Every structure is written in C-alpha cells, then in structure tokens.
Amino acid sequence: MTSSDDPGSGALAGLRPRLPSPLREVVDERFARRGVRLLLKRDDLIHPELVGNKWRKLAPNLAAAAGRTVLTFGGAYSNHLRATAAAGRLLGLPTVGVVRGEELAGRPLNPSLARCAADGMRLHFVERSAYRRKSDPGILAAVLRAADAVDAYVVPEGGSNPAAVRGCRALGTELTGHADVAAVACGTGGTLAGLAAGAGAGMRVLGIPVLRGGFLADGIRDLQTGAFGGPRGEWSLDDRFHFGGYARTTPELTAFAEDFEHRHGVPVERVYVAKLLYALVALAEENAFPRGSTVAAVITGRPFPA
Questions:
Q1: 240: Cβ contacts below 8 Å, ≥ 6 apart
Q2: Cis omega before residue 156 (within 30°)?
Q3: pLDDT at residue 4, rounded to an integer
Q4: What dihedral do alpha carbons 283, 287, 289, 290 form, nearest 10°?
Q5: What pLDDT is attached to residue 215?
Q6: For residue 71, which phi and psi values (nearest 5 degrees)?
Q7: What's the pTM value of the predicted model, to 2 decimals?
Q8: pLDDT at 15 over 90
C-alpha cells in the first residue's frame, strides 16, 4: 500500500480518524436463537464529518489531489457529495459538486445540498442525460469546461475508483480473525471490492445492493482489476433487499430501522444501513449462516442530518 492509499497517512492524519473503527457485539435474539453472533463494525464513528466508508474511499483520493480542486458527482441527497464538501472545508481544498438534474438549479437547495454549499462546495447542475454519460471522455471534458474546473482532480460518483478500493482494503484486514462473514450495503461496490481484497482466508464477504438492476457484480470485478490486477477474495451479492431502488423505502423497512435503533441504541441510516441489517435478519431466519458463526455488519454511515 502506498502512502496515498493509506486512509490515515500524511496530512490527512491531522483530521484524527478513529482507526481501526470500533467493533461491537450486539445481542439480538433473532440471531442468538440460531447460534449466530452479530457484530457491528462502527465505521460511522471513524470521523464526525467524513463518516464511515466515505473516509476510507475519500482519504486516498484527497491525498492524490495534492491540493488541487476536487470535482466529483452525486445526486441531490448524496452522502458522497456532503463528505467531499466537508473534507474540502477541513483541508482547505476547493471542491466542485456536479449534481444530477439541471432542473434543480433554479430551486431552493435541499438540506443535503445546502450543507455542501455551506462547506464551500461549488455546485454545478447538469441535465440527466449528460449525467448518465459522464464517464464518456467527451461528456466529461464538456462538464469540466462548463464547471470552470478543467484542471480539477476528478473523483467518480460514490468515490469508487482504484485508489478508493485500495483504501477500503484495510476494512477487511481489521475484520480478519473476528468474523466468518462480513456484510456491507453496496451502491457502487467500491467498499465491497476493497473489503474482500483485505479479508483473510476463510472470511466470506456479502454485499447487499441498494439499487435495482443486478449490474453490480461486473462493476466490482472491474474495480478489483483496476486496483489489484484481478479478482480478490470470496464475495457474493444478494439482490433481494433493495426495497425498490436507491433511497426507496417502505413502511416495513422504516419500522424495522426504528425497532433496531430501540433494541440496540444504534442510529440506523436509512438508504444503506437499514437495508443491510434487514437483509441480515432475513438471512438469519433462512438459516443462511451456520450455527456457531459470527457475522459482522459494516455500519457505513449514520442518518442525516448528523
């Protein structure tokens, strides 16, 4: 691992991340009656503003930016945009957020985007058709020109690129020897790609996609190839728990999250973490985890506003 891939290295260590993040066992009868231990990997406690996997993915990219403007992408409620904006404020880096939906430019900012702006992020809104094609070199170049950021260091949507994946490898290392299964909610798949690469022999990694589509496996393989030259680790995905797609929810999921908070005193972020925990309870009830096994759920964020 190079220094730029180390989430606690160099100038970024001055932000005082809490690494390794705490690992806490919770007693939950839905697991205990099946002989399964549940651990919570509290990545939401790494840093008060660069929360959870956002620290692990952003830190190596911020180091690589070397003081340049950082430009990245996200939707109107993007956790990634908020974390990037906060990092820019803390480190004195200019940041630009390219936001999906040109129609939003003339509307009052929602609380999430308002937080980004308050942290100094310059917001640039683009039409949705262009946003979908942002990885095309011509479209990206046009976006950079329009945002007056042609020399910016570009971080992809969700922060998942080879540097971020290598940064997330430490998560697998921290869990090795503590769990038989490590589970994480997935958006772009970068956290899982790194987690699986760092996991020790015999530890299985389970991803719970929060988007519909079943497209994530190829993306994870591509990320691991870019970061490590090929596939790493034993991992799988269970696509049954997206609840309709990104940021979609149901009364059942909301009730589940509130109940988990009440049982264990842990704030449950709704877009990712609620779906992960719901999935693990459902899988335990299906006897998907052998008796005597230990499952670690990676808590990648906390509810907004924090």
A1: 279, 282
A2: no
A3: 46
A4: 180
A5: 86
A6: -115, 135
A7: 0.91
A8: no
